[in-house]
Amino acid sequence: MQRFNEVTEYFENTIKSKLNSIPNKIKSIVTEIRIKVNQPIVIITLNDRYYLSEFGLSNIPHNCSSVTRNEFNECIKKMCNYSFFTFENQINEGYLTLKNGHRVGVCGSFSNNGEIISCNDIYSMNVRIARHIKTYGKYIAENFINSRNHLLILGKPASGKTTLLRDIATELSANKIKVLVSDERNEIAAGFNGKYEFGLGPFCDVISNCKKQVSAEIAIRTMSPDVIIFDEIGFNDADILKKLSNSGVFTIATLHSFDNGTNSFILNQLSSEGFNPTIIYLDNIGDIPRYEYSYTND
Fold first, then answer.
1. Which residue, among 255, 297, 250, 248, has the nearest Cα to 279 in the 3D structure?
2. Residue 286, class by beta-carbon neighbours within 10 Å (0-12 exposed, 13-18 middle, 19+ buried)?
3. Structural contact between residues 16 and 5, judged by C-beta atoms closer than 8 angstroms
4. CA nearest 201: which of 185, 181, 231?
5. Rounded to whole angstroms, how far apart are CA atoms 215 and 206?
């Protein structure tokens, strides 16, 4: 519930009041708060989805007041500490990072040069509540240390991949493994005002707000990592992973997938490049990770 209360401080007063009316037992399992201009507020929990009405949570949108443009803009301004342009680079990448590691995805109308110019260009936001919780990181970390093979964590969006990745980094650091976290979107360690909200341990270094290619090169030249951790790899990252493998550095990364990866274009591309990791799959938040298949380097 503490994490939920941290997030409500960023909302306009009318919206904040509605959010505070949610029962405490629900607050503790809220994962997302989704807000759109002229639409009802949507609450996502670990096991259900609701509309937010004047009288609490509802399963139907009727009698749920819509968020006004002024209310929405006030939320954005508070999240930017009333300095929209200070957060301009993040916003143009589609997100904001709040204190304590909470993340806000933003959508709206981009200009011809790919920028959002003002609050009025943003129409919707998705506030994702961050939690540094113990999952199956120790179990995964021990298997990784024993296997000495690259690792890919697959799962659909919001299945807990980043939370697990954070836990694995902490466990590896506790085992005196030199870890470098390439935190491109500032989500794993959540840097804010000169410090990281999620301490990952003395053997873990973090490079934030930096493209994977650049952070990987910096890491190899200066930090001598045993392992580099990436979140959300894509089509353009196959070459990076291959180069790291050839440099003697192990990689742990996440990949969006709606199945165990057998039909993943990215995974097939990586395999064709000679990058054959151990694969685990997450069904939902809190579920036991399933080892789908693995390759060996023998």
1. 255
2. middle
3. no
4. 181
5. 9
CB atoms near residue 170 (< 10 Å): 22
User: pLDDT tens digits for 4-43?
Assistant: 999 999 999 999 999 999 999 999 999 999 999 999 999 9
CB atoms within 10 A of CB 234: 10
Please list the alpha-helical segments (H only) found in 30-180.
Answer: 69-79, 88-92, 137-147, 161-174
- For the entire predicted model, the pTM comes to 0.79
Chain centre distance of CA 160: 9
Question: Residue 67 carries which DSSP code?
Answer: B
SS3 for 140? Answer: helix
pLDDT at 240 over 80: yes
Work out the mean pLDDT of the chain and round it to a whole number: 88
Dist CA 115 CA 118 (whole Å)? 9
Q: Give yes or no for a contact between 157 and 256, defined as CB atoms under 8 angstroms apart.
A: yes
Alpha carbon distance 58, 104 (integer Å): 23
* Pair 233, 209: CB distance under 8 Å: no
- H helix or E strand, kind and range, residue 265: helix 265-272
Buried b (16+ CB within 10 A) or exposed e, 241-279: bebbbeeebbbbbbbebeebbeebebbeebeeeebbbbb
State how beta strands 227-230 and 103-108 pair.
unpaired
| Contact partners, residue 41, CB within 8 Å, separation at least 6 | 15, 18, 19, 33, 34, 35, 51, 52, 64, 67
Q: What is the mean pLDDT of residues 57-71?
A: 91
Across 157-284, the runs of DSSP E, i.e. the strands, are 179-183, 191-192, 195-196, 204-208, 227-230, 250-256, 278-282
Give the distance, in angstroms, between the CA of residue 31 and the centroid of all CA atoms in the same chain.
Answer: 12
Q: Tell the residue number behind the tokens 């919780």, with chain if given.
A: 133
